[in-house]
Amino acid sequence: MTWRVPRQHSGSSGIAPGKGGDWDPAPFASGPRLRARPLLRPYRSPLLLAALLSVAEVGVDLARPWPLKVAVDNAIGRHRLTGWLQPLAHLGPTTLAAVASGVAIVLVATSGLLGYLSTYLADASAERVGADLRAALMARLVELSLRFHDRNRTGDLVSRMTGDVGRVQDAMVALLATLIPEVLTVAGMLVVMSLLDPLLALSGLAVMPLLAVVATRRRHRVRAAQRVARAEDGRLASQATDVMRNVRAVQAFGRQPEVGRRFGTQNRAATLAALTTVDLEARYAPLADVVLATGTGLVLWLGVVRVTTGELSVGELLVFLSYLASLYGPVRSLSRLATTLARGASSRDRIAEVLFSPDFVPEDHHAVSAPELGRGLVLDSVRFSYVPGIPVLDRISVRIPAGQRVAVVGASGAGKTTLFNLMLRFYDPDGGAIALDGVDLRRCSLSSLRERIALVPQEPWMLDGTIAENIAFGRDGVTHDEVREAARLALVDEFALRLPCGYETEVGEAGALLSGGQRRRIALARAIVRDAALLLLDEPTTGLDAASEASVMTAVRSATGGRTVLIVTHQLGLALDADRVLVLNQGRLVEDGEPLELLGRDGPLAALWSVQRGHGQEPAGQRGDGVSVGHHLTETTGRR
């Protein structure tokens, strides 16, 4: 039996981006904008059939008014049937009217069938394009660097993947199901109307330039308003996501009223932005109707004049008015299409900001596979800042032999977790280098580098699945036995086997159904099953009670034998169990050595040990501007 992690479908359009900078957006962009043709190319066959069916539907619609002429002029007016209708000349008025009615019904039914087929094909293709876009967005989002994610709210990114993709789909459906048939309808009707009576055709079209000016101005204003509305919707989604993710804290601190007020403020802002677009869209309809009614009135007056002078029959006037009414319908649809396209354009721009974002960790085009960590890890004068001018790491140099267990300690904001971020290449150093067996990490392919490293974060990531699925997430294709062995080493079996469903127990969203210690042990098992040479443990015991802490520390000792291990910790009891301790202060390495040796020096580690054994507060000397900035970054971005 094999445990497999579900993979995201990358879409069949071929637009899903590759890793880092390997994806070339040029075929899909005009500048930083999406182009429709590459999105539609995989579905050109159903779209072409939909277009042909639309043409056939237009042809049928153009024939629909003529049974009315036969009924009025020939059945009622007793005019002689000529041309291809002459075989019906022997029919009486009632029978002829029945035939005209039957033909009218058949034409309507045929038009409906053709419309159904063309609409289904177009809508189904648009849905598949939407699925491809969502897959491409997901593929891009998981590749973009953390700098991008630090700047953008999670809820807003989810809103782009759902709401904005939906609006792009609506625009695409409108283009396929409205633009093509309506343009063909307008063109066909103009030809027929010109053949019927050129003067009436010109009078009916006289109002079109004014209508075009109004529609163009409206489209630009609606697009700008839609852009604002989508941004406000994104902020609203972000705020709602944040509240739901932290609902326990909201309830624990009794902040429901405050959360309600903040959400209400953003909700009103989003509603006002939406109302602005609704006002702009609704304001156009009466004006367009007045313009079109003016054209209809002009045609009606001129048509009556020509009927009274004998230049036109009543049936021909009715056919012409029917065509004119049918002509104004597509014109209204094309005008409304401008609004739908404006919505789609604003959403398309928001999607393009993700798909064509340059914020990825660069990967060398001649990247090599990361070595197996046979000799060790070297940091050479590493410098890094999240905010320019405020260093988090300052000229860190250290050599860590393979197989060594190293603890990294220091005050909050000293840069401990940032070291892990650089080793995983979530970010690259601003200066200096990190090398694995002498190979600069920037020369290694990201995939091979991260295969060599397993991370246990301070806040363990939990999938909304089973315990087994969460452990198996560490490596694709992991077997059932490997999952069980990793769980045994991480002491997961101590609690999992007591649960009714064992390893098939659901952990809930973000592991809400488990304790903190249980989540950390599952995260440790996930790292073990990865079978990586370098294991990074970020505060594995923080926030746990004494019993859970003891269990996790036992699991760490059990699971890390033979591996190179780096442990970021505030718990000096865990640090003293390491082969070596690195002490960071304000981004600098201030002490490095065996734990007992450092304790005997009466230096920074001894001071930290004294604090933990005493009143539990950091010495004044451990604080400073760099630490304060680091602590602020911890609170605002989750980094230390």
Explain what the structure shows.
This protein has 640 residues and is an alpha/beta fold. The chain folds into three domains: 31-226 and 280-355, ABC transporter type 1, transmembrane domain (ABC transporter transmembrane region fold), CATH 1.20.1560; 404-428 and 447-452 and 534-640, P-loop containing nucleotide triphosphate hydrolases (Rossmann fold), CATH 3.40.50; 461-531, Rossmann fold. The chain has 22 helices and ten strands. Helix 7 (198-205) packs antiparallel against helix 10. The protein has a six-stranded mixed β-sheet with strand order 6-7-8-3-9-10, sandwiched between helices. Strands 2-1-4-5 form a four-stranded antiparallel β-sheet, covered by helices on one side. The longest helix has 53 residues, at 256-308. The model is unreliable at 1-31 and 615-640 (pLDDT under 50). It has helices spanning 36-40, 44-63, 66-76, 93-141, 146-151, 154-196, 198-205, 208-245, 247-252, 256-308, 314-355, 416-423, 446-451, 467-472, 480-489, 493-496, 516-529, 546-559, 572-575, 595-599, 604-613, 625-637; strands spanning 376-384, 393-401, 405-410, 431-436, 439-440, 453-456, 534-538, 564-568, 580-585, 588-593.
